[in-house]
Specification:
- The chain has 251 residues and is of the alpha/beta class.
- It has six helices and 13 strands.
- The strands form three sheets. The chain has a nine-stranded mixed sheet with strand order 4-1-5-6-13-12-11-8-9, sandwiched between helices. Strands 2-3 form a two-stranded antiparallel sheet.
- β11 and β12 form a beta hairpin.
- The model has no long low-confidence stretch (mean pLDDT 95).
C-alpha cells in the first residue's frame, strides 16, 4: 500500500465555484508526493490537543508542512515588525502541534519554506523577520522574485548542502539550484536541530533534526521537481523513510 502523507492544509475563501470556504494544499506538493509513490492527504486546520494530534498522526506515515505566510513573531518572543504579513496564529499553532506529534510518533517530516520556519519556532528557535534588514543585505542573492505576480513565480539561486547530512543523502547532492520565495530565515536554530544548507550569500537554507528524520529547507524543491531529479529526490526520500517508519511501527 502507498504510504499516506499528511499535508497540513490551509483555508481558502468562498468563491463562485465553492460557496463555502475550502481546505487545500498546492498541487506542486501533492504531485511531488504522488510521483514519489505516496498518497497525499490534506488535514483540515483545527484546534488539537497533544493527544488529539498523536491520534491523528498515528493514521499517517509522514508529514509535509508547506510554504505560506509569516509565523506570528509573538510565538518566538518578538513583536511583529512592519515587514511581517499573512499571520494566522491558529494555523501556526495547528502546524506546531502537528509537527511535534509527528516527532513523538516517529513519523518523518519534510518542512518547506514557512514549514521550516514554523518547525524551528515550534521546537524553540527564532526567526529573522526580514532578511533585507541584515548587515549583509547588499550582498544577498535574490531570495524572492521581483514584481510578483507579474514576473517570475520564484527566484533561483545556488544552495550548498553539508556533505554527509541527512539532507545531502536524501537529495543525492551537495550543490543545487533552488527555487526561492521567502523574506525570512531561521535566526536561532531550535534545540535538537542543526544547520545543513546555505545559500551563496551565506544565509541559512536548511536544518535537520539530530535524532529524527525531520528535514527543513528554505527553498521550494516541489516547484522544479517535475524536471529536476535532485529536487524530486527529497520527496522520494520522504516516502522511502515513511515506508521504513511504518514497517517499524508495525513490529
Amino acid at each position: 500500500m502507498k504510504p499516506i502523507i499528511a499535508i497540513a492544509g490551509r483555508v481558502g475563501p468562498a468563491s463562485r465555484v465553492s460557496r463555502s470556504a475550502v481546505h487545500f494544499a498546492g498541487d506542486v506538493y501533492t504531485n511531488a508526493i504522488l510521483r514519489a509513490g505516496g498518497e497525499p492527504a490534506i488535514v483540515v486546520p483545527q484546534e488539537l490537543t497533544d493527544e488529539d494530534a498523536d491520534e491523528l498522526m498515528s493514521r499517517f506515515d509522514g508529514l509535509v508542512l508547506m510554504g505560506g505566510g509569516d509565523v506570528d513573531p509573538k510565538l518566538y518572543g518578538q513583536e511583529p515588525s512592519v515587514y511581517v504579513y499573512g499571520i494566522l496564529t491558529e494555523q501556526d499553532i495547528f502546524e506546531s502541534t502537528m509537527v511535534k506529534a509527528a516527532i513523538r510518533m516517529g513519523k518523518p517530516v519534510l518542512a518547506i519554506c514557512r514549514g521550516l520556519q514554523i518547525t524551528n519556532v515550534a521546537l524553540g528557535g527564532t526567526l529573522v523577520q526580514e532578511i533585507a534588514t541584515l548587515p549583509n543585505a547588499d550582498s544577498q542573492v535574490l531570495h524572492k522574485p521581483d514584481n510578483f505576480p507579474e514576473g517570475a513565480p520564484f527566484a533561483v539561486h545556488g544552495v550548498r548542502i553539508k556533505e554527509g547530512s541527512r539532507l545531502a543523502n536524501a537529495l543525492g547532492a551537495t550543490e543545487l539550484q533552488g527555487a526561492s520565495f521567502h523574506h525570512q530565515i531561521v535566526d536561532t536554530i531550535a534545540p535538537g536541530c542543526v544547520a545543513v544548507a546555505w545559500a551563496e550569500d551565506g544565509l541559512l537554507e536548511g536544518i535537520e533534526h539530530t535524532d529524527h528524520w525531520l528535514v527543513g529547507v528554505q527553498w521550494h524543491p516541489e516547484d522544479t521537481a517535475h524536471e529536476d531529479a535532485v529536487q524530486q529526490n527529497l520527496y522520494d526520500a520522504l516516502i522511502a523513510q515513511a515506508i521504513v517508519s511504518s514497517s517499524t511501527s508495525l513490529r
